[in-house]
Amino acid sequence: MGERHHDRTMSPENHSFRTVRASSAARALNLIGDRWTLLVLYAAFRGVNRFDGFVAQTGMARSLLTDRLARLEAAGVLEKRLYQERPARHGYHLTEKGRGLFDAALMILRWEERRSGEPAQRVIHKPCGCVLKTEMACKACGGVVSAREVTVAPEPGAGFDPAPPPRAQRRSIAEGEGRGDPAVERAVAVLGDRWTSYLAAAAFYGLRRFGDFQAELNVASNILSDRLGRLVSLGVLEKVRYQERPERWEYRLTGVGRELFPLIVALMAWGDRWLAGPEGPPEVLTHAPCGQRLEAVVICAACGGTVGPETTAVAEAG
Ligand SMILES: [Zn+2]
Ligand SMILES: [Zn+2]
C-alpha cells in the first residue's frame, strides 16, 4: 500500500483510553481472527454443518467448539437449523453474512499456496474445469490488484474503535498444536492473534519501525517485541538494519508478507459491508492504475471468470 494520509489529530496518543485505528479489516479480524473460529469457518465452507462433523474436521474439544459456534451464531455468521425433531438436533449453516467471507477464505488458501509453492486444497473452478488458482482483480479495470498499486485514505467513518478486550478465554496460538487442516494452519498463525494481524495490516500502511508500530497500535513493548519476532519467524516480516551507530532495525514485509495483501483487502470489503456503522467505512482504497475506488473481485487465473461458492467444488483426493 502506498502513502497513508496521516492526520495527527487521529493519533492514538491523544486518547486517554486504549484504542486502535478504525479499520474494517481489524473489525473483521476481531470477529473471526481466532484460530478456532477460522478453522470452524473453513469447515463450514467445505460443507460441514453438523456438530460431529466440525469435531472430525477441526479436532476441537467439544466445549471449545460449542463456544465458537455460539460466538459465530451471535455474530450472525452461522445460523442454527433443526434437522431432526426428536430428539431435537441442530445443524449450523452459513448465513449470507457468513457466505460473504468466501473471498477471504479463498485468499487464505491462496496465501498458503504462494508461501509453500503447493496447492493447499484442490478446488475445481467448474466453468473451466481447471484446478483453481485465484487472483484478486479490480472490478473497474480488470487489472490484478497488488499492494504497491493501492492507496488508502480516511473516510467519514474514520476514527478509533475501542481496543478489543484481551481474549482471556481463548487459547493463544503459542499453546498447543491445532489438529486442523495443515493447509490453513500457517494463515491461522498470522491471523489467529489480534496483535500479529494488526501488525501485518500496519505494515501494509508503510509502518516499519518499532516506535511507529507502538504509536499506531498502542501496544505494550513486550507484546510488540514478541509478535514482531513471531512474524519474522513466520516469514512475513524481515528485520533489516537501517543504521549502524547506534544500531537500529526496522521490519519490512517480505514477498510472502506482501502476498497477504489480497486477504486483507477481502477482509476489509467484508468489514465495510457488514461491520461499518451508519457513518460508513473508516477508510477507502483506490486502485492507482485506473483511479477508481477499489472494488475487488476474485477471479480464476486460468479463465478469468469470477469465483464463488456456486462455481467451485472441492476435488476428491486421488
Ligand atoms: Zn482498477
Ligand atoms: Zn476458470
Any overview of this molecule?
- 38% of the residues lie in helices and 19% in strands.
- It is of the alpha+beta class and 318 residues long.
- It has one domain (8-314).
- The strands form 6 sheets. A 3-stranded antiparallel β-sheet has the order 5-4-14, with no helix packed on it. A 3-stranded antiparallel β-sheet has the order 7-11-12, with no helix packed on it. The chain has a two-stranded antiparallel sheet with strand order 1-8.
- A hairpin with a 4-residue loop joins β9 and β10 (248-253).
- The longest helix has 15 residues, at 102-116.
- Bound molecules: zinc ion (2 copies).
- One zinc ion (ZN) binds at residues 125, 127-128, 130, 300, 302-303, 305.
Keywords:
single chain; 318 residues; alpha+beta; 3-stranded antiparallel sheet; 38% helix; 19% strand; globular; disordered N terminus; binds zinc ion
Short structural summary:
Helix content is 38%, strand content 19%.
Ligand types: zinc ion
Q: What is the approximate shape?
A: globular
The helix/strand order is EHHHHEEHHEEEEEHHHHEEHHEEEE
Total of DSSP H or I helical runs spanning 4+ residues: 12
Number of domain modules: 1
- Count all strands and give the number: 14
Radius of gyration: 20 Å
* Mean pLDDT figure: 81
Q: Biggest β-sheet: count, sense, barrel?
A: 3 strands, antiparallel
Strand proportion: 15-25%
Strand order of the largest sheet: 5-4-14
First and last CA, distance: 40 Å
Low-confidence stretches: 2-17, 167-180
What structural class should be given to the helix and strand makeup?
alpha+beta
Task: Specify the helix fraction band.
Answer: 25-40%
